[in-house]
Design a protein that fits this description.
Distance between the termini: 49 Å
Low-confidence stretches: none
CATH topology of the largest domain: D-amino Acid Aminotransferase, Chain A, domain 1
Bound molecules: adenosine monophosphate, glycine
Largest sheet: 9 strands, antiparallel
Number of domains: 4
CATH architecture of the largest domain: 2-Layer Sandwich
Strand content: 25-35%
Helix content: 25-40%
Radius of gyration: 21 Å
Number of helices: 14
Length: about 425
């Protein structure tokens, strides 16, 4: 079959790499792809957000199946448009994508169906939000309702910070229209984990857990980024915890979405806070995480294309999905200065030698080709991904490959996986 992957990040390179291995995949396209994806797929110059151009291309090339990486085209209704013309797609409908597209939609759904999450209020004007805060005990988190490229969340240490956050979003309009409405939430303490499930409308299959490293520097310090590294699975989510998350969070959410008339299909990515053995929902994303996808794809044992197709076709119940027993870990290499200002177009060398380290796969994010040379073309540039028996072993292999790459203008965190390694060594 002809498959099109939408997006250009490390997540989409990992998806392309996994899909290309399927005997069912005769031809693979990516829109727009990157220098790494170009090795295994035909890259077409269409931006992931250009929903109409993607639809036109999929129709004219007679694409059989479209796998959507990022959230923006999902929230814009790409899957609805494709399905309307008879093209199968992996990802939720526009309405179901509200689970990520509107935090108020997500929180109201969870409250209505008694799914564990932080107490909250939704406000469309600042004074009412400030009044709500006066009565709150403990820490406060202020969030813009809409999509704000992962930046619309402000964790506040006291009430004055919370008032300032409300003004920043609603009066200074720091995130534009995404801040027309805001949420004020109770601060939840605990350990944060990501949990993923494949969903076909009614059936959900656990993919397991991962832990991201959002802060730019070692020890989780410095400003937040899109994610500097991840590993999967995480020891916080053992078999019993996975069962609990599926029974108390994922399955009730799937049933709630169906009851609301917007059955959920695709991957459901739950950001969870676990405290004293109790998981609560921080957020939902309607797509794979980046870089979490890289480690999930590395651990996939069965045919990824078949699994994603089963989600689109409502056939997950019969799908055979198996996982490697090993741990996977990804170290993100970013351009100096990221997440602030950084240069593009710097040269990256010795990638072939780095990827020959056993068990290592290098996924590209912001890269482009100049002839045969690979140049940086974004903030997060490479995802050096490895498999090991333990997190420690996977980490050692990943850094061996990282140290083989010649890219003086790049950097990475040197402690990816530290929480799990501390546990392994305890
Ligand atoms: P979100 O995009 O809603 O997941 O928020 C981004 C990050 O802010 C999360 O990954 C958490 O680290 C933090 N966060 C969000 N909401 C809360 C909360 N209610 N309590 C504690 N931390 C939170
Ligand atoms: N790595 C976090 C995310 O993709 O949202």
């Amino acid at each position: 079959m002809k498959v099109l992957v939408v997006g250009s990040g490390g997540r989409e390179h990992a998806l392309c790499w996994a899909i290309a291995k399927s005997p069912k995949c005769d031809k693979l396209y990516a829109a727009p792809g990157n220098a790494g994806i170009a090795d295994i797929a035909e890259c077409v110059k269409i931006k992931a957000e250009d929903v109409n151009a993607i639809l036109k291309f999929a129709k004219s090339e007679k694409i059989d199946f479209v796998v959507v990486g990022p959230e923006a085209p999902l929230v814009d209704g790409l899957v609805d448009k494709l399905e309307k013309v008879g093209i199968k797609a992996f990802g939720p409908s526009k309405k179901a994508a509200q689970l990520e597209g509107s935090k108020a939609f997500m929180k109201d759904l969870l409250a209505k169906y008694d799914i564990p999450t932080a107490d909250y209020g939704v406000f469309d004007e600042p004074d009412a939000a400030k009044e709500y805060i006066i009565k709150m005990e403990g820490g406060v988190v202020v969030k813009a309702d809409g999509l704000a490229a992962g930046k619309g969340v402000i964790v506040c240490h006291n009430k004055n910070e919370a008032y300032a956050a409300i003004d920043h979003i609603m009066i200074e309009r720091a995130f534009g229209d995404a801040g027309d409405e805001i949420l004020v939430e109770e601060f939840m303490a605990g350990e944060e984990v990501s949990f993923f499930a494949l969903v076909d409308g009614t059936t959900a299959v656990a993919m397991g857990s991962a832990q991201d490293h959002k802060a730019v520097h070692e020890g989780d310090t410095g400003p937040n980024t899109g994610g500097m590294g991840a590993y999967s699975p995480t020891p916080v989510v053992d078999k019993a915890m996975e069962k609990k998350i599926m029974a108390e969070i994922i399955q009730p959410t799937i049933e709630a979405m169906a009851a609301e008339g917007c059955p959920y299909k695709g991957v459901l990515f739950a950001g969870l806070m676990v405290k004293d053995g109790e998981p609560r929902v921080l957020e939902y994303n309607v797509r794979f995480g980046d870089p979490e996808c890289q480690v999930l794809m590395a651990r996939f044992n069965s045919d990824v294309l078949e699994a994603l197709l089963a989600c689109a076709e409502g056939k997950l119940k019969d799908a055979k999905i198996t996982w490697k027993k090993s741990t996977a870990l990804v170290v993100v290499m970013a351009a100096d200065g990221y997440p602030g200002h950084y240069a593009k177009g710097t040269h990256i060398n010795n990638l072939a030698n780095a990827s020959s380290v056993k068990g290592v796969e290098i996924f590209h994010a912001g890269t482009k080709l100049q002839g045969k040379k690979v140049l940086s073309d974004g903030g997060r540039v490479l995802g050096v991904t490895s498999i090991g028996k333990t997190v420690k072993e996977a980490q050692e292999k990943a850094y061996e490959a990282v140290d083989t790459i010649e890219w003086p203008e790049g950097f990475c965190r040197r402690d990816i996986g530290w929480r799990a390694i501390e546990r392994e060594e305890a």
